[in-house]
Amino acid sequence: MLRISPEVKQRGPARGGRWARRKDSNDQGFLLIKHQARKILDRNTARTYDSRRAGTYYNHSRKTISTPVMNNKLFITAAIIFLAAIANIGLSADHEYFPPDESSGGWRKNTSDEFIQSLGFIPEKLEEFGRYNLSVPNSNWKPYADYKGILVIKDGWIIGEWYNTEEASNFETYLSSNGKAFTLVCFGIMAGDSQDGSIPIDINSDSRLYREEWLPQGFPLSDQRKSEITFEQVFRHTSGLCPERTGDGDPVEKGRNQWTDYVDWLVGHDQKWPQTGQLYFSPGHAEDYDRKKIDGDHAIAYSSVAMGHLGIIFQNVYSKPASRFLWDRLLEPIGFSGIDFHEPPSDSIKWFSAGGLRMTPRDYARFAYFLLNDGKWGGNQIVAEKWIRKFRSSPSYANIRSNSDGIFGEQYPADMFRIAGSGVNIAFIIPSMDLIALRTGRVSNSRWEEIESTFLEKLFEAIGED
């Protein structure tokens, strides 16, 4: 088994603390210089400083650091060394980092133990996190079961990167329902185009899903109640369209990849598969469905059929395949190395917008970093900041699932959120800590809760305590 060692391990805030980003550089040289200057001071005080408060983060509950009387000359000397070093290496005090594409060098990495410790991560514990994830066995679904990838990214630095084989780093693995998060972003891009007049339709999250101007294939309606479905209900999995499974895990959806015609199957016109034709409850009222799933404190009926509608709408609105719209407006601008598709629905339709995407672990991390930065990449606001915040700050969206209600654990930051897909392909994103942790593979979903819980426990164990 080949292990690709982590190249950057950084120290972050302790569990349960309220942490905020300071306006300091993320450059490794800057942080190491700060650490060295602090060590000079530490040797001449009666107390040891917490190195995290000498780094890029501080705790709101401890905005100041009180110490015994210092030797002023030593303090001034350390400050001069610190400021002179910054000037010599030409660092910016307000640095924003976005990784170039992989052909131009890709993500930045560093594994210096000193750097790790100065930022608060415990190297041994971070290694335990990586090894645990490598140890989790995949299922037998080939070829995806042959590959595992794990990354931890702090302040834009890869601080841990592990693969079970060398080939896994470049293998475009299938991420299942993670594709729904990409679809939500694409809808936000389309809504922005509508708002600024780039497209000749008025469409937003409150618009009706079934409108002839953007979904003519859906008419005549297979169920008259479909006229009431809004996009917001699709996003929340409360549309009434065919659920994938019941709350108990029993299959409901039938006909996937066996349809007579893909679009007919989605909109309920495929006579071979009547399951997609009738609604299972009135739009917006998943609580009335006797086989609902409870997510936190609200009812949903998770529907891939519903999310699949959006790819057809993208195609209709932009007169190009949804896969091309995805690439042109999202993936290429954030530097994806490529994209592939799992079981394309037809010769002309590559992307089943309820999932369907295959990508490398590092490209998956790019998307997570894009979400962490609220839809910004470099100098471009690709989708409105408020669109991303709408999803990541509310517990109502299963495909960009917020921890604001403590569903993943009240001991973890409230602003943490997750994107996920079958096989326990998960990425946790914590904006207040500038931290991303993800795993790819093909694990049995029966172990989901166990693996996800241990994933978070080991991640936060790797972050030093106050």
Key phrases:
single chain, 466 residues, alpha+beta, 7-stranded mixed β-sheet, 3-stranded antiparallel β-sheet, 12 helices, globular
Provide a descriptive summary of the structure in words.
- The longest helix is centred in the middle third of the chain and has 19 residues, at 178-196.
- Residues 1-71 and 73-95 have low confidence and may be disordered.
- α1 packs antiparallel against α2.
- It is built from twelve helices and 16 strands.
- A hairpin with a 2-residue loop joins β7 (293-295) and β8.
- The chain is of the alpha+beta class and 466 residues long.
- A seven-stranded mixed beta sheet has the order 3-5-4-16-15-14-13. Strands 6-10-9 form a three-stranded antiparallel beta sheet.
- It has helices at residues 28-42, 72-89, 113-119, 123-135, 178-196, 231-236, 262-267, 304-318, 322-331, 361-372, 385-392, 448-461; strands at 19-21, 57-59, 108-109, 149-154, 157-163, 173-174, 293-295, 298-300, 340-341, 357-359, 376-377, 380-381, 401-402, 417-421, 425-430, 435-440.
- The protein is 31% helix and 12% strand.
- It is globular, with a radius of gyration of 24 Å.
